[in-house]
Amino acid sequence: MIHIKTIHIEEFRGIRELDLDLAGENFGICGPNGTGKSGVVDAIEFCLTGNITRLSGQGQGELSVKAHAPHVDQSKNPDKAKVTINAAVPSLGKEVTITRSVMNPRAVEIVPADAQIEAIIGELQSHPEFALSRREIAKYVVTPPAQRSADVQNLLRLDYIGDLRKALVSYANKGKRDAEEAERARRTAENELTTALGLDTLDRQKVLEKANEQRSALGLPALTELTPKTSFKEGTAENGEGHKKPSIAKDVALADLAALAAAIDAGEPEALKEHRESALADVRMLQEDEKALALAHGFITTGLELVTEDACPLCDKPWDAEELREHLKAKLLTAEAMGTLLENLGKTIGAVMGSLEERAAAIRKAAEYAAKLDPAVPRAALDARAKALEDAKAALKAFQDDHSQIEGAIAAIQDKWWELPADAQARLDETQKGVRALPDSSAKDKAIDFLAVLQDRYERLLVSTETAKKMAARSATAQKVHDHYNSVSNKVLEDIYDAVAKEFTDLYKAINDDEDEFIGELKAEPAKLSFNVDFYGRGTFPPGAYHSEGHQDGMGLCLYLALMKHTLGDKFTFAVLDDVLMSVDTGHRRDVCRLLKTEFPDTQFVLTTHDRVWLQYMKTEGLIKGGQFFGGWNVETGPRIWDDTDIWAEIGAALDKDDVPHAAALLRRYLEYISAVLADNLRAQVEYRGDANYDLGDLLPSVLNRWRDRLGKGIKSAAHWGHDEVKAGLEAELEEAKALIQKTNAEQWAINKSVHFNEWENFTKAEFKEVADAFKALLDHVRCPNPKCGGYPYLTPRKGSPEQLGCSCGTININLKTK
Amino acid sequence: MTDENKEPLPPTVARVLDEYLIILHADNTIDNEVADRLDALLRNGKVPKPEEIDAVLFAPTKNQGP
């Protein structure tokens, strides 16, 4: 991934022209709503991916990047709307310039054209989640489990795992269907052989006996064993003595026709009836669910999520909540129920297809006998019936391959195809009559004809048996390959969800130090991902159940960070957080800053907020160094911006213009802000006010008193543990603190009005400069000297007896314990 | 697209396929050569069609001859 150094935006969204210098560091963008902050987020997303989620996401049907990404005055000139990002690629130690125009969002210009850099930009393009808005954060926390499953799997790039699973399932199912079809063909071949032999079941010994009876009539030696190479007709006249092959083997034909007639007369077999009825019920249930899927599946699922009281969430009609849930659930097939239903359907439809195939083959055979008679019996009615049965079987097969082909399947299952239409029945009767009327051939010819038919049907059984075995073996392999994949991928996913849940828990605890027992659970179930979190030791519940909006925002951020960390690992070097924490309260904001800074030191965050104080917190905690204020916007010029320059530089600039009142106002506002931060950090003892309206005079003296007191406490602790060097260092620091505090005159405010901050605006330039320098020196003395940190120290723990005074990087680390 | 330009498999997918190959190799009823061919197909980054799976699972192995 990358670290952004500069961004140049032209005629894009609400921006006419804008340059931002991020210097590859975390960066804050602050401004009221409607000042163009999100335009910057859109520009980053567009430049890196060619897309803008805000315009192309769910429910944005009328919007498009090409039509609506250019500034409104350039909507007809998409070529003028473009974004250029200059970035560092830390993993390669290279720099890149990326340019994209709305004219052709899919084309990106990457300079230099380097395959490794292009691969990294390609990866960014496939991970648009680097930009997270508050609206999107909700999807990780409060969306229905089925949608969360899709979102999380998408973020973790698990879609390919699911796609492979589907491909292997589909292949295994196809293998199973092919094996079943081959087995049905084998059974048909076996039935035809046993019918010809006049046997109820296939028995090797009896086959030999029947064959040898006929061979004996021809004076041929008996066969002693049945092997695949056995030739029943070996030595018969057919093989060379001018035997005229009859068109119909009368006995076999009569047996075939009698078997068909008997099957028709017997009506629908009980087993087939059961399979057919079961298949019909299942297909209809599937059809109902298909309708639900097409029309209202999402609506019903959402409805289920919304049932929280004893009333319909849509029309307020009174309902018992549990009863309503059951009512809605009954409208949907769960994934598990769907799996069972499809498995059952596979069996019952397979049985119906087998029966159809056997009946069609028997009718085709009758049609062939009809055609061979002299005079021939018209075969068209029989062929038409056989064709209708073959079509019905094809419709069932099409349904097995594609479950949306329901109508054809229902027709095939409903048809009373075991009955023969009157015209076909008449042709069958005529054919039987015609075959019966055929002259009986000599015993010798009869034997030759019988052995020829036996040979043909035996060879077909051999071939179909071989095919069925082969297909069964293939099906077993396909199933095994799928089963292995299923068990492996399930285990890996469970491990991932466990790891992400643990990471989430750790991150969330880091920003909520009053929830030591907190745990988060991600549990994968068929087609959904449940997310439950602890609520103060009272059990685990969905995040939306009891937690406040602010806590939910925090959870969304932590889950997102955990997922990104897991997905990208070391490559998680860049993220845009667009107003994601607006509901998080002040105390937790500081913890969030520390979390981002300490847990993700190599990730560049671009954070937007409409809250100036929030931006100050980011700066105070050392999360961001630079920022940009957006203050006002109009359609002609775009956002009005000014740099978030250093406060001391701003004061210096005011003094350079001899504007002491402005410099005094700046210093006062800044000290009010920083005093509030330090009062909180050091747990200063301030006179309580119900309206929390503390001014500088209320806060700063208490803060300074507390600072000296804490240094004194540190000295005592060092003495107690015998750390002489630390003690000496802290004593020197305390002396320095006293001197610097004295220079600020802050402690004189109550007793000497001439030095009170209210009087600063009346000071001379030199007098005020002395004051400003004194406060700068004092604050520099308090904050961490490490330039990479620069944060103000804070007490830990935040409640109870303070044990340590330190900063985020650990450079300031003062032990306060004496026990 | 050349192999060098092909998007690498996400780490999670690679992990599933790594462990899958181990399981396939451990199954005595599946030839190692077949397992390797299936592994290569799945790492292609494109969802395989049934006929492609069929080809790798049931192509003659070196031991089987033509």
From TrEMBL, chain A:
Domain of life: Bacteria
Keyword Transmembrane helix: no
Biological process annotations from GO: DNA synthesis involved in DNA repair; double-strand break repair
Coiled coil regions, renumbered to chain: 172-199
SUPFAM superfamilies assigned: P-loop containing nucleoside triphosphate hydrolases
Segments forming domain RecF/RecN/SMC N-terminal: 3-618
Keyword entries, A-Z: Coiled coil
Keyword Coiled coil attached: yes
PANTHER family the record matches: DNA REPLICATION AND REPAIR PROTEIN RECF (PTHR32182:SF0)
Protein name (database record): Chromosome segregation protein SMC
Organism: Candidatus Kaiserbacteria bacterium CG10_big_fil_rev_8_21_14_0_10_49_17
Automatic annotation (TrEMBL), chain B:
Domain of life: Bacteria
Protein name in UniProt: Uncharacterized protein
